[in-house]
Specification:
By secondary structure, this protein is α+β, with helices and mostly antiparallel strands. The protein has 2 domains: 7-76 and 97-141; 145-250, no CATH class. It has helices spanning 7-32, 76-79, 90-94, 121-141, 145-157, 169-181, 186-202, 206-212, 215-224, 227-232, 243-250; strands at 35-37, 40-45, 48-58, 65-75, 99-101, 112-114. Strands 1, 2, 3, 4, 5 and 6 form a 6-stranded antiparallel sheet that branches. A hairpin with a 2-residue loop joins strand 1 (35-37) and strand 2. The longest helix has 26 residues, at 7-32. The radius of gyration is 21 Å and the shape is globular.
């Protein structure tokens, strides 16, 4: 099979991408208050960042332009306090998000395929409609801490939502959200989440393993913070080694 990801194809797809996205710009900016920076549309105010990111590339075999939108919200109050324990760099933590989605998580497409040698207005219109629908869904259901609590924490408490199959940060984000919005349910949520953490640790999930021996210290710190502390916390250097340093140390011959 002949490779079609050549310079000419990439150049055409770049133009095609800009043309497709230009049809969305006005609505994303006007309807959602987003600001365009490259292929990212961002809304910022104190303590929160909302983004629609249009990841895209040219398929090396078909030459198709593939666009993968992502819809993300970051709340500083849910993330910044954890920086002292995180193995991520400050830069990575600044670009982190609290809740993020691709289309398939909310009933839409994740990847969209276009060809520079075919004019398919119906595919472009469908792309625009779905992006706007996904943006509205995420920004409505997770656009405030109370709405995020309703759509994320309540289903967990009611055993209607399966918890993530890996990672650790999500657990601290969810606990922090509960602590801020409805602290009376914090202990119940903590019990559910810690059960999941133990399950993942027993499966030797590497991110969980890194934090497992530190959980008591992490939760003690979280529980000592007021809502005001959480809202005003800045990203700081970690008190623990990086994941690589930790992993290397436990696998020394």
């Amino acid at each position: 099979m002949e490779l079609t990801n050549n310079k000419e194809t990439r150049s055409k797809n770049k133009e095609l991408f800009e043309e497709i996205i230009s049809g969305l710009s006005d609505k994303l900016i006007k309807d959602f208050g987003l600001k365009k920076t490259g292929s990212k549309y961002t809304f910022k105010e104190k303590g929160v960042r909302k983004e629609v990111v249009f990841n895209h590339h040219t398929d090396k075999w078909s030459g198709e332009l593939i666009i993968t939108p992502a819809y993300c919200i970051k709340y500083d109050a849910l993330l910044n306090w954890f920086s002292k324990f995180s193995f991520k760099t400050k830069s990575d933590q600044r670009s982190n998000y609290s809740y993020g989605f691709v289309g398939e998580k909310i009933g839409y497409n994740t990847n969209y395929f276009f060809r520079s040698d075919e004019e398919d207005l119906s595919a472009v219109n469908k792309f625009h409609e779905e992006v706007l629908s996904c943006t509205e869904y995420v920004f409505t259901n997770y656009g405030t801490l109370p709405s995020a609590y309703k759509n994320r924490i309540e289903p967990i408490l009611n055993e209607e939502l399966e918890l993530p199959d890996g990672g650790f940060d999500w657990a601290m984000i969810d606990l922090t959200l509960c602590k801020i919005v409805n602290p009376k349910n914090y202990n119940k949520l903590k019990e559910i989440i810690l059960d999941r953490i133990e399950f993942l640790n027993n499966r030797e999930e590497p991110n969980v393993a890194y934090y497992h021996d530190k959980i008591d210290d992490i939760l003690r710190y979280l529980e000592s913070l007021s809502t005001n502390d959480l809202e005003n916390h800045k990203i700081i250097d970690s008190i623990y080694p990086s994941w690589y340093e930790w992993y290397t140390s436990i696998h020394k011959k």
